[in-house]
Amino acid sequence: MAEVGLLAFARTALEVGRSVLPPYRTRFSKHQFTQPQLLAILCLMRYEDWTFREAEVRLQEHRELRQILGLKSVPDFTTVYRFLQRLEGQTLDRAVGETVRRMGGRHGGGRRRARVAVDATGLAPGAVSTYFVRRQHHHRPQPLPWRHWLKWIVVADLDQQLLLSQSARRGPWNDCASLPAVVEAASQRRRIGVVLADAEFDSERNHAFIRQRLGAQSVIPAKRGKKTWRVRGVRAAMRRAFPRKLYRRRALVETLFSSVKRKLSARAPGRSLPMQMRQALLLGLSFNLYRLRHRYLFVRMSTEPTHLINAEIGALGRARLQPCRKSSQNSGVLTPEGTGRKAFGPYRAFMRWLLVSSLQLLVSSQQSYQAGICIP
């Protein structure tokens, strides 16, 4: 991707790899390639969605990339594949924790607790196009064969758009019982204040774990089962008075999934299930490395009218239109005198600011414009 170059990404991946892995696995190693170098190559593969053979070719062609990684020679694709086979999930988990620590932010040691969301998504286990599968089903009379996929469960910090913990398993599967493990792993890296999850994770046991064990607030819609069923405890409170305004923030985890699949990859390739699981965990690590190099990417503007109007009113108060010295005669035409919140309502102030901006852009585009309104 052009947003973060290969050299910057490889440098960050190598630094994280050196902090979680020793240089060599045993003292009998060939000492030709270090473990952090091979881990950085795997992260580059996930970052650019390369295959093992493509990674070997790219490293042979890119001299500066080899210098950043400290490679005297290019490893064979089988070397990288065997290193991935030996790579443990605990190592990837420590690497994700290191990226969270390096990201820091206001939740690292501050007073405010993080708002996290738990969700799962599916990853394709191979490179077969889903469009090809649908077309085959369209031209055949028999029903579509049942296919398995890889289910990737993540706990994301909604404010920083960062993965705190992750796990993977074969789908389809009910992930309700997986919530305590991933949330507890995330709580070791961030002080959690609110946990948001969809109806898939709805259970009284999950509510009790979040509220009693972590001391956080749990917001999960109580939609499992029929409406006529009698529920008790926190689930009854959720059904009676659900905090919809707070639950809207859960949609940000879908933004994270969209960013991962659009910018990195939507696949977890591998012939075996353990290999697919490692590929999914590497995908989460690569996304955190990407966020380390591009921290100010996810600046989200709310589409709600009240938030939009308030933001524009604040911009109007900061950027007052003033007349220029050359033409003070036209200043009374476009200068919005008294367009604050007291003079107009929020909607009228925003519409007046929009009208003034449009007129100013139109006037400045004319070649014969010699004197007019300027913004300090």
The helix content, as a percent range, equals 40-55%
CATH class of the largest domain: Alpha Beta
How many structural domains in the coordinates?
Answer: 3
CATH architecture of the largest domain: 2-Layer Sandwich
What is the element string, with H for helices and E for strands?
HHHHHHEHEEHEHEHHHHHEHHE
Radius of gyration: 27 Å
Strand order, sheet with most strands: 3-2-1-4-5
What's the CATH superfamily of the largest domain, by name? Ribonuclease H-like superfamily/Ribonuclease H
Q: What is the overall number of helices?
A: 16
Poorly predicted sequence stretches spanning 5 or more consecutive residues: 297-310, 315-344, 367-376
Whole-Å distance between the termini?
A: 37 Å
Q: Would you count the extended β strands for me?
A: 7
The major β-sheet equals: 5 strands, mixed
Strand proportion: 5-15%
